[in-house]
Amino acid sequence: MIVAGLLVLVVGGAVAGTALRQPPPKVLRPAPVTVPVPGASATPLPASSAQLMGLVPLKGPAPSFALTNQNGRPVTLGQLDARSAVVVTFLDDTCRDVCPVVAREMAAADADLGANASSVQFVAVDANPVDPSVAAIHQLTVEQGLAGMPNFSMLTGPVSTLDQVWAAYHVTVQEEQSGAVVHSDVMDFVAPGGGLRFQATPYADLSSDGTGYLAPATIARWGEGIAHYAMVARGS
């Protein structure tokens, strides 16, 4: 029976109520972690920054890739990490939840790096299997305010090639029956020469219409953390 918006179940004489309301949108947040930074010359940020980013240490070589950037030029990981640390993440030009937040965090990190910005490369691999065109990723860089960052590359390629990169970086990309694209969110920090150092887990709060957002102070804190751990990955 239904009483005051509850579905009431009678089980063995006990009464259990289950609300009929839809649950609020799920917001994924990283579990608290503490990340040691052995041998880092930079002063580590407070543990709360690592917790905020869901940061975990990584080892081994970063998966290589050969893709095309937003200007139609070929780009490989080896070109990017020859002298620079590389921050690798995944964006979708149709994404309106986490992706715009990550774009703002990368822009904040670039600003925080200041004169050190040239020693860090920011890379976003296309996570849209429906339209992986150069025109689409170029438009994304403009819309998200990243076109003015000379150390930012949005990369795409044939879906078969992108699929290999997604799998190598343990990113899940799925096209739903509705046509929407859903993908997992990671941010890897690669040292010069191609060694993996850290992985962060970006996230966003969701408004009622599904648009992602974070408080400006939180985005600024993410930017500070990204800049810091990029320099740690670089060995500075």
What does it look like?
The protein is α+β, with helices and mostly antiparallel strands and 236 residues long. The chain has one domain: Glutaredoxin (3-Layer(aba) Sandwich). The chain is 28% helix and 26% strand. It contains six helices and 15 strands. The chain has helices at residues 47-53, 77-80, 98-113, 134-143, 159-168, 216-234, and strands at residues 2-3, 6-11, 14-19, 56-57, 66-69, 74-76, 85-91, 120-126, 152-156, 173-175, 181-183, 187-190, 196-200, 205-206, 212-213. The strands form four sheets. An eight-stranded mixed beta sheet has the order 4-13-12-7-8-9-5-6, sandwiched between helices. Strands 1-2-3 form a three-stranded antiparallel beta sheet, with no helix packed on it. It has a two-stranded antiparallel sheet with strand order 10-11. Helix 3 (98-113) packs across helix 6 (216-234). The longest helix has 19 residues, at 216-234. The N and C termini lie far apart (66 Å).
The fraction of residues assigned to DSSP E strands is 25-35%
Give the overall average pLDDT: 84
Q: Segments where pLDDT lies below 50 for 5+ residues?
A: 1-41
Number of helices, counting only DSSP H or I runs of 4 residues or more: 6
For the biggest β-sheet, the strand order reads: 4-13-12-7-8-9-5-6
Cα gyration radius (Å): 20 Å
What gross morphology would you assign?
globular
CATH superfamily: Glutaredoxin
Give the proportion of residues in helices. Answer: 25-40%
Termini, distance in Å?
A: 66 Å
CATH top level assignment: Alpha Beta
